[in-house]
Amino acid sequence: MRTRRSPWLGLHSLLMIIFIYVPILFIILFSFNDSRLSAEWRGFTLDWYVSLFDNDHVMDALENSLIVAVISTLAATLLGTLAAIAVRKVTRRLKLSMNGLMYLPIVIPDIIMGLSLLVLFRLLGVETGKTTIIIAHITFSMSYVYVVVSSRLAGMGKQLEEAAQDLGASPWQTFRHVTLPQITPGIISGALIAFTMSLDDFMVSFFVSGPSSTTLPIYIYGQVKRGISPEINALCTILILVSVTLIFLAQYMLNRGKGQKKQKMLPF
After folding, report:
1. What is the pTM of this model?
2. Letter string b/e over residues 153-179, b meaning 16 or more CB atoms within 10 A of that residue's CB
3. Does 253 map to a domain?
4. At what angle do helices 180-200 and 130-156 cross, to 10 degrees?
5. Which contiguous run of DSSP H or E holds residue 177?
6. In a domain? residue 228
7. Inside any domain, residue 246
8. End-to-end alpha-carbon separation of the chain, Å?
9. Range of the domain at 208
């Protein structure tokens, strides 16, 4: 029995797309505006992108963002992957508890996480700066890696690992030659997501950053308080393109991993 689709559902989806993406399109469009006034179009120019890379404050913020993103991504990918592998081997009840703890940084509001980490650092007497931002980013990025790798492990099954052990492979050999190649697309995808989340994060970074550890989102926030300029639109456009590219790469790696798994399962 075929069900009729409500026309209101399509209209609702269209309105949501317009509401979400039209403002982004305006940001991209006005980053090429020849006028400093964002509401007035005077022609096409690339001058704002040129001046953006000549701005020492922007370059310092970009350097801080990249340092934080790279270090936190490497640490979060390692910790999240190890946690996913470890939780896979525990009992069902303990697995549910661990899943709840690992999902917590994803579901709680960013402002609560940022404030709680700031209180923790103050109690420990840790001075806020790049180190505290890196620790904070590892805290929430690790959960995203864990979710992606866990889903990859759940879909992999244990048949190949058990077959390798039956053929005399050691636990390390089984992990090196069977488990790791199967979950590598998930690890790469989780790392890309963690890098994107770290690069775009504002709320948590705002709470735990110091005077000399301004990241790009914090710099943008400080400049927007003085008014939106085409230079800020250009910077936002670059961040949007980088984020979208990384998300598509992450999804591609996941889909590629699923395709490779199906090919290995074919009997020919």
Report:
1. 0.81
2. beebeeebbeebeeeebeeeebeeebb
3. yes
4. 150
5. none
6. yes
7. yes
8. 37
9. 56-265
